Amino acid sequence: MLLPFSPPSSSPFSAMLLQRLLSSLARRQVPSAFPLPKSVSTVISRPAGRSRLGFAPGQSFELPPMASSAPTEDARRSSFVPLPPSPADKAMLYKGLEATLGSTFSSAPSFPPPNPLILVVSGPSGVGKDAVIKRLLEVREGIHFVVTATSRPQRPGEVDGKDYLFVTKEEFLSMIERDELLEHALVYGDYKGIPKQQIRDYMDKGFDIVLRVDIQGAATLRSILGNSAVFIFLVAESEETLVKRLVARKTETAEMLLVRIATAREEVRHLKEFDYVVTNAEGKLDNTVKLVESIIDAEKAKVHRRNVQI
User: Fold this and answer.
1) Considering 30, 60, 96, 215, which has the largest number of Cβ atoms within 10 A of its Cβ?
2) Band of pLDDT at residue 30, cut at 50, 70 and 90
3) Ranges for the Guanylate kinase-like domain (predicted)?
4) 213 and 123: one domain?
5) Are residues 72 and 208 in the same domain?
6) Has residue 156 got a pLDDT over 70?
7) Number of domain units in the chain
8) Claim to verify: residue 226 and residue 292 sit in the same structural domain
9) What is the DSSP string of the chain?
10) Catalytic residue among 249, 265, 269, 306
11) Residue that is last in its domain, among 39, 71, 101
């Protein structure tokens, strides 16, 4: 096999480099994916006279046959090819490598970029879902929190369109009729639902989506999305800690607290239906968020990725 090669007349280094490169490849055990002939002939072309390596114009030289076993330590040392001293020689080396392998080097990504994720965050009331999501949005780019529509009254400090989309019960029922919600449920006497269009718009921009739902909503989403979404269950360190948080909120009556605690006990039974469980320990919000970020990073590094369609 003849590989024509014409280095610049002013750079004998390139010819020497290719000779040593081919000699090195000939002495090594080459994987079967890149078979080389048992001998390689290379034509060195110069305008006139002999090259500094002693070859006449158009003269061919025969390289030794490939070794059938791994080279010795001395052979490995002698086959070392130094880096070229100039950009022109490096370009020549690059072309020589491609010619020897019989293919060009691809500039395409080694692995396609990850798909946008849908993160379904759930857990008992009072576990800190809002605080975790808020902090996550502050420290990580490329995430959109889908604002849930609800018919419940707005609490002090909540912002319409940011914390929830506050609508009347009649408006919510109209959204259901128009099929505008991915899922909806009646929770503690009030409606909650996830608008579809928000998800589509931001996933088209490459954003990961965060959904905050109760256990009932998570079960509904699991039936709709299957394994295409990532389901994360937040828990407190203990039931006692959870009750203290509910009491500290001062947003429920004693009767409502009893309902929420009883509901929380039932909800924890569904923990095994989720992909991940994260403990939101008191005073360690940043640690909780780092765990959630680790889950996102791990999901994006998977070979078999989730692919969701809304």
Assistant:
1) 215
2) very low
3) 116-297
4) yes
5) no
6) yes
7) 2
8) yes
9) -EEEE---TT-HHHHHHHHHHHHHHHHS---TTS---SS-EEEE--SSS--TTSPPTT-EEEPPPPPSSPPPHHHHHHT--PPPSSHHHHHHHHHHHHHHHTSPPP-S-SSPPPPPPEEEEE-STTS-HHHHHHHHHHH-SSEEEPPEEE-SPPPTT--BTTTEEE--HHHHHHHHHTT-EEEEEEETTEEEEEEHHHHHHHHHTT-EEEEE--HHHHHHHHHHHGGGSEEEEEE-S-HHHHHHHHHHH--S-HHHHHHHHHHHHHHHTTGGGSSEEEE--TT-HHHHHHHHHHHHHHHHT-SS------
10) 249
11) 101
Asked if residue 69 is part of any domain, the answer here is yes
The verdict on residue 305 lying in a domain is: no
- Residue 124 within any structural domain of the chain: yes
Based on the domain organization, do 26 and 53 belong to the same domain? yes
Pairing relation of β-strands 143-145 and 148-150? Answer: unpaired
Q: Are residues 131 and 53 in the same domain?
A: no
Q: Please indicate whether residue 140 is annotated as part of the active site.
A: no
The predicted-structure confidence for 123-136, as pLDDT tens digits, reads as follows 998 999 999 999 99
Q: Residue 11 belongs to what domain range?
A: 2-101
Residues 91 and 217 in one domain: no
Do 224 and 287 fall into the same domain? yes
Per-residue model confidence as pLDDT tens digits over 239-267: 999 999 988 888 888 888 998 999 999 99
Catalytic residue (one of 155, 200, 222, 265)? 155
Tell me if residue 260 is catalytic.
yes
Q: Is the pLDDT of residue 29 over 70?
A: no
CA 50 – CA 195 distance, rounded (Å): 78
What pLDDT sits at residue 16? 62
155 annotated active-site? yes
Per the domain annotation, does 221 fall within a domain?
yes
Q: Catalytic residue, from 260, 265, 269, 305: name it.
A: 260
